From TrEMBL:
Protein's gene: eif2b
Protein name: Translation initiation factor 2 subunit beta
Keywords (A to Z) from UniProt: Initiation factor, Protein biosynthesis
Database matches in SMART domains: eIF2B_5
Family the entry assigns: Belongs to the eIF-2-beta/eIF-5 family.
Summary of subunit composition and partner proteins: Heterotrimer composed of an alpha, a beta and a gamma chain.
Free-text function comment from the UniProt entry: eIF-2 functions in the early steps of protein synthesis by forming a ternary complex with GTP and initiator tRNA.
Any one Pfam family match given in the protein's UniProt record, by short name: eIF-5_eIF-2B
GO molecular function: translation initiation factor activity
UniProt KW Protein biosynthesis keyword: yes
Amino acid sequence: MWEIVDLDYQKLLDRAREGLEDVMNNAERFSPPVPDVLHEGSKKTIIRNFTEIVDILRRDETHLYKFLLQELGTAGSINNRRLVLQGRVPERKIKERVSSYIDTFVVCQECNRPDTSFLRSARTLILHCEACGAKRPIRNSLVI
């Protein structure tokens, strides 16, 4: 009797695993966006895919905008879905700052998933993970 039950169980388990193969093989479903940087002379640096980056990260564009301006130490504006920075900023520096933003404000430190949102508790900004439920305070002085 147990052989029949075990056989049915094993078949069901194999069938369930077949449906999950893609998910199990794909270790990282989140690939961080890469800024598409364009230098316009020596006076301007443009991130052409700024709005796409914001959409992928599921964050408010003014938050990432303020973070980048603060970290890069320059002025800028958002025009036609692009971020225009004053001065010539190296592409490597922009990529490092976007990566730093993702580590600080997007990815959960517990499960390394990007499924997070901001919560405000009194004067503290909290990063809440929607995947694992973890909460952690954000220790950056940038205000939303």
